[in-house]
Specification:
The protein is mainly α and about 130 residues long. It contains 5 helices and no strands. The model has no long low-confidence stretch (mean pLDDT about 85).
Length: about 130
């Protein structure tokens, strides 16, 4: 019996959305430690660039993994993973402190998911 399916099921998207948030959650956990020395060195990198990279990376990794379990419709999968990750992030209230933060989180998760799906689709066409 193969693990490959035509389409992912609800549980795949739910697990993918949670997994996409893990790098961001780890970053937030690291922020709870004494980071005053790091934060004062370069505020833009520490509080803007790193969270954006972690969210894009989480969406990318999860979308790629879910696409590997499917046979088609990769861009749809990437988009749904990004939306699911955004909803899970909203439910836990991590990026919902301001509307602009929520928009950035949504953009990062969706962009990472669609990028991974597109790259996986190109890889499948090449092989």
């Amino acid at each position: 019996m193969s693990l490959k399916r035509e389409e992912p099921v609800f549980e795949d998207y739910l697990a993918g959305g949670a997994l996409a948030n893990v790098p961001f959650w780890i970053y937030l956990l690291i922020l709870t430690f004494d980071t005053s020395g790091y934060a004062q060195s370069n505020v833009v990198i520490f509080f803007t660039a790193i969270p954006i990279v972690t969210m894009i990376g989480g969406g990318f990794l999860t979308s790629y993994l879910v696409c590997r379990r499917s046979k088609g419709r990769f861009v749809k999968i990437g988009l749904l993973i990004g939306v699911t990750a955004t909803l899970i992030n909203l439910v836990f209230g991590l990026a919902a402190s301001t509307p602009s933060t929520f928009v950035v989180a949504a953009f990062c998760f969706v962009a990472g998911g669609v990028l991974a799906a597109t790259l996986y689709q190109r890889q499948k066409k090449g092989s």
